[in-house]
Write a structure and sequence with these properties.
Distance between the termini: 27 Å
Number of strands: 22
Largest sheet: 5 strands, antiparallel
Strand order of the largest sheet: 1-19-20-21-17
Structural class: alpha+beta
Length: about 400
């Protein structure tokens, strides 16, 4: 009995020797140094003609300015930006597109497709984006989606994948429509997100920047020349892409992407005047881009060299857990002088065992208390649990050492 009591005391003592505690959660704040000399902040646009407008950082997706930017509205032919990118991602440019009676019977503005004709898909995409032809949009939709309804499901699915929160498309050309689920609509914020996504596609950019294009239907019997209706291409250098739109419900709409001094801005305008006010959209776009150019400059938010400290894992063998930030290429965003930045590390409550590669925390970046960026923190090594077997082995090692000594 006495020997058992002594052994129990030794085991308890060993547990006390090898058990360690640690801080399981923490938050570390970093003050981000200013990497550029900011010019004085320009005043926000006081008056815009558009009922709804968004200015977006094309890199981060952060909204820099908005006027009722999440208001659902009809958006006319700006729909064709998403129609184009969905077609590019789901079909080949050398596909044969056969024209149906439904496509041929679409209202103006139209190319004048005739039932039974065939065209290369790529040619029709130029017609779609440069001159906003409604018959072309339906021919593309029926080819890619099997029907207009099938293609509409593809559009709405893609919009959700992009991050759109309040978009519902019924037609591929943006003509006013309504069904049992509601009206054809989007928001200025969603429309900006769609353009931000589209300009990542090089073929889309090439089409959007083309000034004029000539093509024929496959037999060569009829030839067409289309010219880019995005007048803003000639109003300001640096325009990457743009799409206009108008219906009686939507009014004049416009969405464009613009690059200046390494900065990318997206402008989305909805309900920007009705007939006799066709130039309002250009005035609003200039005003927003001038504000953007004079106010927002790139600044490093998360350094690619950022590395979290090691932590101690409770009851771990070994006790030290090395951490690494996954896929850290650094993060830069456009900031104004008034923006407040906070970067923090958030760790989960941990105890052994912990597996190498397991997500154990997150780097979070906030601008003006809005979470704008995050990266997972993972375990760089495996931590086993200090169980009864572990303590017994340690005890035996000590006893052997005592015997030898």
């Amino acid at each position: 009995m006495r020997m058992k009591h002594i052994a129990a005391v030794i085991v308890v003592t060993a547990v006390l020797l090898f058990t360690q505690t640690y801080t399981s959660a923490r938050g570390a704040e970093y003050k981000i140094p200013q990497t550029v000399d900011m010019t004085p902040v320009a005043e926000e646009p006081a008056e815009l003609y558009a009922l709804s407008a968004v200015l977006m950082d094309g890199e981060s997706g952060r909204v820099l300015y908005e006027k009722d930017g999440e208001r659902p509205l009809a958006n006319a032919s700006t729909t064709k930006v998403l129609t184009c990118i969905v077609a590019l991602e789901n079909s080949s440019g050398d596909d044969y597109v056969q024209v149906s009676q439904n496509a041929a019977s679409q209202p103006e503005v139209k190319l004048g497709l005739q039932k039974g004709e065939q065209y290369y898909l790529e040619d029709l995409l130029y017609s779609l984006m440069l001159k906003s032809h409604n018959d072309t949009a339906v021919a593309i939709a029926e080819h890619c989606g099997g029907s207009v309804e099938g293609f509409a499901r593809m559009l709405n699915r893609k919009a959700k994948q992009i991050g759109c929160k309040n978009t519902y498309f019924i037609t591929p050309n943006g003509l006013d429509a309504e069904d049992e689920n509601g009206k054809h609509h989007t928001t200025a914020k969603d429309l900006a997100l769609i353009m931000r996504y589209a300009i990542k596609n090089e073929t889309f950019l090439h089409i959007a920047q083309t000034r004029d294009y000539t093509f024929s239907e496959i037999t060569g019997k009829r030839t067409f020349s289309v010219y880019n209706a995005n007048a803003f291409l000639d109003m300001r250098d640096g325009v990457l892409a743009g799409k206009t739109g108008y219906t009686s419900q939507a009014g004049y709409c416009y969405v464009c992407a613009y690059r200046c001094d390494g900065r990318t801005f997206i402008v989305a305008l909805m309900a920007c005047g009705w007939p006799n006010n066709k130039t309002y959209k250009w005035k609003d776009t200039r005003k927003l881009l001038d504000y953007a150019r004079n106010t927002y400059y790139p600044s490093e938010i998360v350094s690619k060299d950022m590395q979290p400290d090691d932590i101690i894992v409770e009851n771990g063998n070994p006790s030290v857990l090395h951490l690494k930030i996954e896929n850290n290429n650094g993060f830069t965003a456009l900031l104004s002088q008034d923006d407040k930045v906070n970067v923090s590390i958030h760790m989960q409550t941990l105890s052994a065992p912990v597996l190498s590669g397991e997500t154990v925390g997150e780097v979070r970046a906030y601008i003006n208390d809005e979470k704008i960026y995050s990266l997972p923190i993972t375990a760089a090594n495996t931590i086993k649990e200090k169980n009864y077997v572990f303590y017994l082995k340690q005890l035996l090692k000590r006893l052997i050492f005592i015997d030898k000594s």
